[in-house]
Amino acid sequence: MIFLNHILSWDQTIFRYINQQLKCSSLDRTMPYFTHFGGARFSILICILLLWLQSGSFTNIARDTIIALAGSHILVQLIKNFFNRPRPFLVLPEAFVKESLILKDYSFPSGHTTASVSIATVFSLYFPIFAPLFFILAAVVGISRIYLGLHYPTDVFIGAVLGFVSALIVFFI
């Protein structure tokens, strides 16, 4: 129990730093755009684009991306409904959250981060030279979720692990 309290305390401290101490007008403008790279619309658009490009290795990329996203999304929803963790802006009165982004589901784990890391991992396995770019973009999605007051760092971390492992399983099986 002491270990869990320590993690939760660390979680809130890191959250407050990213959500409040890093706050500036340029991030206020850009983070809402970056956060959408992990959203359903973007993920589905990527899958549709890959299906449309289906030829050669794009057939395998499309298949692996769709399966990794679907599998990880199912896991995220099961975990969210099991843990029922309220979003930070509901618990921490000082949390900054943009009204247009307020969500009603649970916080743990971050589905946007899971999706972006899942896609980044699949793409990195097929195009390793671009792996740093893919993972930087996925990391920015995760950080944006914290910056915008929607997730704690542990939500993002576990979401990243789920996305990464899901993609690896799909790729290597």
TrEMBL record:
Major place of residence: membrane
Keyword tags: Cell membrane, Hydrolase, Membrane, Transmembrane, Transmembrane helix
InterPro entries: PAP2/HPO, PAP2/HPO_sf
Membrane topology, record value: Multi-pass membrane protein
Pfam families to which the protein is assigned, alphabetical: PAP2
This protein's GO CC annotations: plasma membrane
Ranges where the Phosphatidic acid phosphatase type 2/haloperoxidase domain occurs: 62-171
UniProt key word Zinc: no
Molecular function as annotated in GO: hydrolase activity
Presence of the UniProt keyword Hydrolase in the record: yes
Stretches that traverse the bilayer: 33-53, 125-148, 155-172
CDD domains: PAP2_like
Subcellular locations according to the entry: Cell membrane
Protein name, per record: Phosphatidic acid phosphatase type 2/haloperoxidase domain-containing protein
Organism from which the protein derives: Desulfuribacillus alkaliarsenatis
